[in-house]
Please model this.
Amino acid sequence: MVSTEKVNITSYDEIYLIAPGDILFVRSDDHYCQITYHSGLSFMLPQGLGQIDETFQSLGFDFLRRFGRRYIINVNHIVYASTTKQVLVLGDASGKRYNLKISKPVLREFIEQNRIS
Model:
């Protein structure tokens, strides 16, 4: 799934061209964010997670969901979630697994929202 749609994020005298459809996850790191694409590419962005989340939501990228205070995750790449283990597993294009530690309440809410009755 390669997206051609880009989001321009500017900071001082820089511009970042972000492809939301290609994002695996975004991790908060103080006043910065680390964006990891499903291709394995990763880079830092000089904006907070709240600002990034607000931008994605205002543009209608509902597949990028906030998971607690630390992550924005592309739900299309989730392969496993466990409240007992407090882990969310994502897979990238090369088959690499990313095990993210997520709080139990956040995982419980995600599982309940996606439960098939």
User: Anything to note?
Assistant: The mean pLDDT is 90. Helices lie at 49-58, 104-113.
